[in-house]
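Researcher: I'd like a candidate sequence for this fold, 714 residues long. If you have to choose between options at a position, lean toward the conservative one.
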């Protein structure tokens, strides 16, 4: 629902291009508006950053780089970044406008979802993340609010690049992210990678299946603490009967140790789809119990614990079950005490320290218990976060390693206690082995594959050149094909890790090779109205090119007759498509055929592309001869080709009786004859002294109206 609050930006034109229509939402870092791109005539989402971010020049530079990187990612399940810039004190991002709602709205409306619906909704999210991860992009703020569901059912992940840019602009030891979905490594201030997004996806999937988040607390610091020190419980603890594969999927994604999670979105996607296709209909359509809400409000002893057994201090008891609002991106600062955070709960932006000071979490400890600290995942961590087959394999590997180690430390022959020569020999062997191991380790980490090296810059080089440079530097490489709008196909876009970074030489470097720009089929618009064609272009993220109008006898005005490029032509996003639009039938001037003989008039109208219709009624006309056109309808203006003109034909002048006025006074005779429509001529004899009509021509007969009657007057 659009925000009805007045906003000074609504109605303004940003950067002489984006007309702000209304405010859609406001968050901790930006306000989102619905705007119209005046140049391309399409609706867009305009994300305007808050002033405290606009004043940071380093942040704006970083945002520009992140926006460019995100704009190169073109995927059906990722909200496209269309533009970025600033207008005075207004810094903005322009993104694809998705009319619809968010996954948060679905969870609020439906609560816990069936496994079928939850897996179907999370599938496009993971697919979009997989494409982003393959392109070297990390989201860092995956949450239901950033999963957009269009009215036509399309699902897209939004806000790529913004959280990463804000993270880079904050001080050392600070981080950005929504605390409910924050991965343990981000809480601890460590470097995020694709597996951090996977953790957030796992938390989100848990919430979709159970209707609640796995960790809660009265203040955000408690939730963050549980991410680091607690293991996400199996969703089946809340939804009995849930398939074990779904439990394993959630716990695989939410393992505290990133090494125990899927490598990236594509790795998770294959497992997710495998599970979806192998679960039975009964398992997929399992309905969550109606008692979930009752469980959430039952006494603490009846609820599943939010922390592992034996660590009661992870979530201290309180007088009421106060849920923390976790739907905003939050910053938690290194210098704050938890009591300071409690006093700032009205502010959606909170600071979480990446490096907690000693004793910072003292208030979270149980009375009399030891002060807890952010823990590290260890060897004793349960394996519940790994899918069954992988967990079993890893358990077998560990058991085999332990058995091998035990066998190596057990001599095959017992050494007698009292044989000092053998004991000395054994010690010599041990020292020699240790020296060899130390020498080998020194070589490995000093000059061998374990030595550090700096990744060279290989962008815009051929794959062979890039591999040669990496090989010279001591690195092995693999290639991944990616779409890129700027770098020609076949050349290297970049590396992962990025150029200039120092890593161990045994680590494999991924080369991203350009496939050229990603091309999409141009939609077909012939036969559609101009407005429909514009909507088609907006939906396909194509630009409207030149619009040419022409007359058409077959298509009504406003209909698209042709397009360039043609429908189905592969083109990159933003390609202008020119349209030829009908102006309707060409207007034809109506010729004036009045006075022409009927046949000639019909031919003249047909030559102009019109149809002549002869009226059945004929009329007398003293000026138009019989058989000629005396009137037409319409008589002027324009018609379209094939329309009709009605012609009225003359019967000629009307015949009128000429009475005799001989012997009458000439003046009286003149008046009477003129009243009958005759033209009167007077011929005076001897000056017409008496004024009497002596003769008349014609007389006592019928003549055409308007004929001349001659009077001879004496």
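Model: Candidate sequence:
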């Amino acid at each position: 629902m659009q925000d009805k609050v007045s906003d000074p930006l609504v109605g303004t034109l940003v950067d002489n291009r984006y007309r702000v229509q209304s405010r859609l939402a406001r968050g901790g870092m930006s306000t989102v508006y619905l705007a119209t791109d005046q140049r391309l005539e399409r609706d867009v989402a305009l994300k305007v950053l808050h002033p405290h971010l606009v004043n940071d020049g380093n942040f704006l530079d970083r945002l520009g780089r992140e926006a460019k990187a995100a704009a190169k990612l073109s995927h059906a399940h990722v909200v496209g970044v269309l533009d970025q810039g600033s207008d005075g004190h207004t810094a903005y991002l322009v993104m694809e406008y998705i009319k619809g709602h968010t996954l948060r709205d679905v969870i609020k409306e439906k609560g816990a979802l069936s496994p079928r619906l939850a897996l179907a909704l999370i599938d496009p999210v993971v697919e979009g993340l997989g494409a982003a991860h393959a392109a070297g992009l990390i989201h860092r703020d995956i949450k239901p609010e950033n999963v957009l569901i269009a009215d036509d059912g399309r699902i897209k992940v939004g806000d790529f690049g913004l959280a990463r840019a804000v993270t880079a602009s904050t001080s050392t030891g600070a981080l950005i992210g929504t605390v409910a979905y924050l991965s343990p490594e981000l809480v601890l201030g460590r470097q995020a990678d694709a597996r951090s997004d996977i953790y957030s996806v796992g938390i989100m999937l848990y919430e979709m299946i159970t209707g609640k988040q796995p960790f809660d607390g009265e203040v955000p610091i408690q939730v963050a603490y549980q991410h680091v020190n607690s293991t996400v419980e199996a969703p089946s603890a809340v939804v009995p009967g849930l398939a074990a594969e779904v439990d394993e999927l959630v716990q695989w994604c939410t393992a505290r140790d990133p090494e125990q999670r899927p490598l990236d979105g594509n790795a998770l996607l294959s497992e997710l789809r495998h599970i979806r296709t192998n679960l039975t209909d009964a398992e997929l359509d399992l309905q969550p119990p109606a008692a979930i809400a009752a469980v959430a409000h039952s006494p603490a002893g009846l609820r599943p614990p939010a922390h592992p057994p034996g660590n009661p201090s992870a979530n201290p008891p309180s007088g009421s079950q106060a849920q923390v609002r976790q739907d905003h991106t939050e910053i938690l600062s290194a210098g704050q005490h938890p009591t300071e955070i409690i006093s700032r709960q009205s502010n959606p932006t909170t600071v979480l320290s990446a490096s907690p000071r000693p004793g910072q979490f003292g208030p979270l400890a149980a009375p009399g218990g030891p002060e807890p600290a952010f823990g590290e995942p260890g060897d004793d961590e349960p394996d519940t976060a790994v899918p069954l087959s992988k967990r079993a394999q890893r358990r077998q590997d560990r058991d085999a390693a332990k058995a091998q180690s035990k066998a190596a430390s057990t001599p095959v022959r017992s050494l007698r206690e009292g044989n000092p020569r053998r004991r000395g020999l054994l010690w010599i062997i041990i020292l020699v082995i240790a020296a060899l191991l130390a020498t080998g380790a020194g070589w490995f980490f000093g000059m061998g594959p374990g030595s550090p090296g700096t990744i060279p810059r290989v962008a815009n080089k051929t794959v062979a050149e890039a591999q040669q440079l990496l090989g010279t530097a001591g690195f092995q490489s693999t290639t991944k094909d990616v779409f890129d709008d700027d770098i020609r196909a076949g050349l290297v876009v970049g590396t992962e890790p990025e150029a200039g970074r120092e890593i161990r030489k045994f680590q494999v470097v991924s080369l991203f090779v350009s496939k050229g720009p990603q091309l999409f089929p141009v939609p077909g618009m012939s036969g559609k109205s101009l407005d429909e064609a514009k909507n088609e272009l907006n939906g396909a993220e194509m630009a409207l090119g030149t619009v040419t109008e022409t007359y058409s006898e077959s298509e009504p005005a406003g209909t698209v007759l042709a397009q360039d490029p043609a429908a189905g032509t592969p083109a990159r996003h933003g390609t202008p498509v020119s349209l030829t639009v009908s102006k309707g039938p060409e207007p034809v001037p109506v010729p004036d055929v009045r006075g022409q003989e009927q046949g000639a008039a019909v031919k003249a109208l047909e030559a102009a592309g019109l149809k002549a219709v002869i009226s059945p009624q004929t009329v007398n006309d003293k000026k138009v001869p019989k058989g000629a056109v005396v009137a037409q309808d319409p008589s002027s203006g324009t018609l379209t080709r094939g329309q009709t003109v009605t012609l009225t034909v003359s019967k000629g002048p009307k015949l009128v009786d000429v009475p005799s006025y001989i012997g009458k006074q000439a003046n009286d005779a003149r008046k009477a004859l003129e009243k009958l429509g005759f033209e009167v001529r007077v011929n005076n004899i001897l000056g017409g002294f008496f004024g009497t009509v002596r003769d008349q021509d014609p007389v006592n007969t019928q003549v055409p109206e308007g004929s001349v009657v001659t009077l001879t007057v004496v």
